[in-house]
Amino acid sequence: MSHAPVNLSRRQLFTRRKMTDSPALPWVKEAQFTDLCTQCGECVKHCPTQIIRASDGGFPRVDFQLGECTFCYQCADVCPEPLFLPKTEPAWQAKAAISASCLATQNVDCRSCGDSCEPFAISFKLAVGKVAQPQIDLNSCTGCGACVSICPTSAISINQPQLGSANVT
């Protein structure tokens, strides 16, 4: 049985994507985010990769289907509210995860995620009788999302770690 929180949003009822599991913005103070964010849209306007979009309630959220986060800190620089941690802090604890819909699990050779991973956090382990299987080094993964939009089966997501759980792929 899954202990993931249930999303009661009507907008998410018929979609496959779980936006609440993905990080809102890098360096954001999650506990104060909905209290302090005024939904002004400055972070959306100034994101050079245009991956920040308004989500439920107009709050900004990173959408990795549109591209990757370059950790440029522009969203924090233009924000008029004290929502962000200093750039010297880690951007977030979010990490990539690969689901069972990955082509490699269906014995189809695809290495697009590994090719797009700049920190080389995704490697491929050879397997007898199968194509090489992707593995994520969670210590190297920055959660940038470069692997998400490139995946032909949408098998990769960037998720915040659940308290007390290990994300091993």
From TrEMBL:
[4Fe-4S] cluster 3 binds at residues 141, 144, 147, 151. [4Fe-4S] cluster 1 binds at residues 37, 40, 43, 47. It is found in: Cytoplasm. Keywords: 4Fe-4S, Cytoplasm, Iron, Iron-sulfur, Metal-binding, Repeat. Residues 28-57, 58-89, 132-161 form the 4Fe-4S ferredoxin-type domain. One of its GO terms (molecular function) is 4 iron, 4 sulfur cluster binding. [4Fe-4S] cluster 2 binds at residues 69, 72, 75, 79. Signal peptide: none annotated. Belongs to the NapF family. Interacts with the cytoplasmic NapA precursor. NCBIfam families: napF. This is Ferredoxin-type protein NapF. It comes from Oceanisphaera profunda.
